[in-house]
Structure formats: C-alpha cells, structure tokens
Amino acid sequence: MLKGIPNILSPELLKILMEMGHGDEIVIADGNFPAASHAQRLVRCDGHGATPVLDAILQLFPLDTFVKQPVALMAVVPGDNYSPDIWPVYKKILQGRDRNFTEFETMERYAFYERARKAYAIVATGESALYANLILKKGVL
Q: Could you tell me how far CA 129 lies from the centroid of its own chain?
C-alpha cells in the first residue's frame, strides 16, 4: 500500500501509467469491448466500473494540453436511438480533475477500434453501460 494512490489502481496499471509518454494513449473499455483482441497491453479491472477507474487514473494522469480534444468516445452507431447516460458522468469527472477539459472527441465505432489497437494499453473494466469506451491521451507535467 502507498499513500495517495487510489487502491483501485493495480501495480500493473501503475507501471503502465508510468511507462507512458507524452502523446501515448490508454483506453478505458466497457465490458462489451473486444479488449483482449485489440490490446498491445491488457490490464483487467473486472468487477470495477469505468467511472471509478477513470477518476482514479485522472488523479495521476495528465491529459494532453497540446491537442484540442485529449479524450475520445466511441460514437453511438447511426440508427441506434440511444443516449449514453455515462457520458455526462465522464464529463463531470474530467472537469473535476482537469480544469482545461472542455469537450470529447467522438469517433465512429470502427475508427475507435483502429485507434484502440494502436493505444499503449487497454484497461478492460466490468462496466455494463453501453458506449462507455473512452481513450485518454497523456500530456506532460
């Protein structure tokens, strides 16, 4: 145990966050995301929702201030009349942890998958909300 480190962050995830450099990306994936088949590095956070994982990561992780939108969401598939309830929760967490955060980038599903394949790591959560996948781009301190 360490002081000041959220206990939801495993040693493996802490190591990955430390290894990442400016511009590297990490995916926080919901329980439906094909994380194992897309990940270069996979961290399992089964049993945890995406919102507590996001909040814990943001306590240690600077977002990239050199890009307009350092956080990307998977867009709702056209024709799916669904409004993700988790997106406003994400926005509240992000604005609470990073005063520079304003808006998300939204990406078409397959474009999101392709970008996720290139991410430094994917964190597979047990999140059951639909369209709860997001990508964070690391900044500098």
A: 14
Q: Are 112 and 25 in contact (CB under 8 A)?
A: no
- Token pair belonging to 21: 């450099």
How many CB atoms within 10 Å of residue 61? 17
62: nearest Cα among 112, 98, 107, 88: 98
pLDDT in tens, 94-138: 999 999 999 999 999 999 999 999 999 999 999 999 999 999 999
Active site residues: 22, 64, 113
pLDDT at 1 over 80: no
Burial class (CB in 10 A: 0-12, 13-18, 19+), 16: buried
Dist. CA 60–CA 73, nearest whole Å:
21
